[in-house]
Write a structure and sequence with these properties.
By secondary structure, the chain is of the alpha/beta class. It has two domains: 243 residues, Alkaline Phosphatase, subunit A (3-Layer(aba) Sandwich); 136 residues, no CATH class. It contains 15 helices and 15 strands. It has an eight-stranded mixed beta sheet, with helices on both faces. Strands 3, 4, 5, 6 and 9 form a five-stranded antiparallel beta sheet that branches. Helix 5 crosses helix 10 and helix 12 packs antiparallel against helix 13. The longest helix has 26 residues. The protein is globular, with a radius of gyration of 21 Å.
Length: 395
């Protein structure tokens, strides 16, 4: 038996007037999800534990089978693991975005999705000017990077930049132990980056300048068991973002690098599916994560989100199903968003999400759709997120 966990990040949404009261999931053409739903089970899951933030690190950790209330220590260390950055338990890790500002407001938390090549040049400039024996900057993918503070404090509150678009960023600077150092680094980064030659070229080309760094996701290394010890299965993760790759590496999954996997709507959908199939030839469990619907939700772009969902269905799920059939594998699939990312707010929502369970050896007769309506009408409710992995492995 082969097991697939497929996360279409942020796919769930809310009814939109622009779509005549429907959601992007309901409008999108998803024949492969529809086909699995007709022969599988639809449920609804709470993926945000009470008192925790609705962030992809928290929700994905739970879906993977690990209780975030027990193991979660913050986002930065997870992404640092993806980059193989050495850390000790006394160190603090921070997610570091390259952002676009006008010197007063947060304009874009992704810096217009600055390319990885451009970002590496900017992070190198920051590291050259601002690194010390205790503080070091590490480049990641696109706008997503890491800062490690050796012996630093994670007892500081940092705001996620995507939550403060078009707001004065000075109202949301870090607070708590070590906040003054983080603030000075942010302020100094603007002086270094705003007139950097690369950003001058970006402005000339009509793009936003990636002219400041922003810290969030403060964390330390968690003590977390392996996926093998939890489930008895070895496995792989196929993803484009450091957060998911880092979580996979932390729990001992093989991290697959896919050319063209950007963590955005232009990601290599087909390549991810093809690499996942290759991993299934060697292992029994593969986790496939697609960030594109979430990014479209953050941009509040309805058409882009619909297109991302359709690409997920046709290029990812369709390719996986065809490959599984050609190989003759028996398989089980758990497919779901990790949280809603509503177009209306552009931010994550803690509302329950629909999930689809399919077992190729136990075909069912189901009338519920794989969208938010199914989550409302189903009797299969999962309140404790790690139970989802048990459903996948024991269904």
């Amino acid at each position: 038996m082969k097991y697939l966990l497929i996360i279409f990040d942020g796919m769930a949404d809310e009814p939109l007037v622009e779509l005549d009261g429907k959601t992007p999931m309901q409008v999108a053409r998803t024949p492969h999800m529809d086909g699995l739903a007709a022969k599988g089970m639809i449920g609804a899951a709470n993926t945000t534990p009470e008192g925790m933030s609705t962030s992809s690190d928290v929700t994905n950790m739970g879906i993977l089978g690990f209780d975030p209330l027990k193991y979660y220590r913050g986002r930065g260390a997870i992404e640092a693991a993806s980059l193989n950055i050495p850390m000790e338990t006394r160190d603090a890790a921070f997610r570091m975005n390259l952002v676009a500002t006008d010197g007063e407001k947060m304009i874009d938390s992704t810096a217009d999705h600055v390319s990885t090549d451009e970002a590496r040049q900017l992070v190198a400039a920051i590291d050259h000017k601002l690194s010390t024996s205790a503080i070091k900057f590490y480049p990641g993918v696109s706008y997503r990077h890491i800062m490690i503070w050796r012996g630093g404090s994670d007892n500081v509150r940092c705001m996620a930049p995507y939550k403060i678009h078009d707001k004065p960023y000075t109202d949301y600077l870090p607070e708590g132990d070590g906040a003054s150092k983080l603030k000075s680094l942010i302020e100094d980064s603007y002086e270094i980056l705003n007139n950097h030659p690369l950003n001058i070229r970006r402005r000339d080309a009509g793009q936003l300048a990636a002219n400041m760094i922003w810290f969030w996701g403060e964390s330390r290394l968690p003590e977390i068991p392996s996926f093998l010890s939890l489930t008895g299965l070895s496995g792989s993760v196929v993803a484009g973002v450091d957060l998911i790759k880092g979580l996979g590496r932390m729990v001992g999954l093989n991290v697959v690098e896919v050319p063209g996997a950007t963590g955005y709507v232009d990601t290599n959908f087909l390549g991810k599916a093809q690499h996942a199939l290759a991993e299934l030839d060697k292992r029994d469990f593969v986790w496939v994560h697609i960030e594109a619907p979430d990014e479209a939700g953050h941009e509040s772009d309805i058409e882009k989100k619909i297109k991302a969902i359709e690409d997920c269905d046709q290029q990812v799920l369709g390719t996986l199903l065809n490959g599984l059939a050609a190989r003759g594998y028996d398989f089980r699939i758990l497919l779901m968003p990790d949280h809603p990312t509503p177009i209306a707010t552009g931010a994550h929502s803690p509302e329950k999400v629909p999930f689809l369970l399919f077992d190729s050896t136990k075909l069912r007769d189901n009338n519920l759709p794989m969208d938010e309506r199914g989550a409302i009408d189903t009797d299969l409710i999962v309140e404790y997120t790690p139970d989802l992995m048990k459903l996948l492995l024991d269904s």
